């Protein structure tokens, strides 16, 4: 966890620009939630100020991500998870559940993906913080679930202030919790992966050509997203 890491004015501008898009999406898809009852995922736009280079190329974040993986990581997902009032507790789960080697699903492997998340509004116990069972990314799935059920592993809620950055291994078992407030709770995430790994597990938006041209070659090499025409 990196506390107060991203500039609050940058996130305020992101929220102000994104909020009408989010409300429009929720109005259209309210009865068709794609992450369980009253819980939605939607891809984030790349138009500034919803997008800012600091969200992808922050030196402190990249130093951690590259330290865990390698210097050639790429960002390949950019989206927002939003529980609404009426959402409940999710089952504990890992993201990207298909193992790299299906014949050896519990084979211990070095990390080849990490999620970097930040919130566009304060996340408290009232509006649906994520709960994480730390260390379960190193355990066989059935054992991890058993130890959570028996309370052998501590499950921690993750409150976030605007500017906090959460870096997590997506195999660590976690769940969303109920949003008991009237306001949507937007948690934005960038996924970084080793360059050789690819999947299409989540929808992404295209990068507008003007935004793509604003990046130098080194920054473009970090972005694995379609580029618009």
Relevant terms:
6 helices, 229 residues, Jelly Rolls, single chain, five-stranded antiparallel beta sheet, alpha+beta
Describe the 3D structure.
The protein is of the alpha+beta class and 229 residues long. It has one domain: q2cbj1_9rhob like domain (Jelly Rolls, Sandwich). 24% of the residues lie in helices and 18% in strands. It has helices at 8-29, 54-57, 59-68, 141-149, 209-213, 217-220, and strands at 39-43, 74-83, 113-119, 130-133, 155-158, 166-168, 174-175, 187-193. The protein has a five-stranded antiparallel β-sheet, with helices on one face. The chain has a three-stranded antiparallel β-sheet with strand order 5-4-7, with no helix packed on it. The longest helix has 22 residues, at 8-29. The radius of gyration is 17 Å and the shape is globular. The N and C termini lie far apart (37 Å). The model has no long low-confidence stretch (mean pLDDT 95).
The H-level CATH homologous superfamily, spelled out, is q2cbj1_9rhob like domain
Please summarize the sheet with the most strands. Answer: 5 strands, antiparallel
Strand coverage percent: 15-25%
DSSP strand tally = 8
Please name the CATH topology. Jelly Rolls
The value of Rg in angstroms is: 17 Å
Figure out the total of helices.
6
CATH class: Mainly Beta
Uncertain segments are: none
Topology:
Blueprint: H1 8-29, E1 39-43, H2 54-57, H3 59-68, E2 74-83, E3 113-119, E4 130-133, H4 141-149, E5 155-158, E6 166-168, E7 174-175, E8 187-193, H5 209-213, H6 217-220
Antiparallel strand pairs: 1-2, 2-8, 3-6, 3-8, 4-5, 4-7
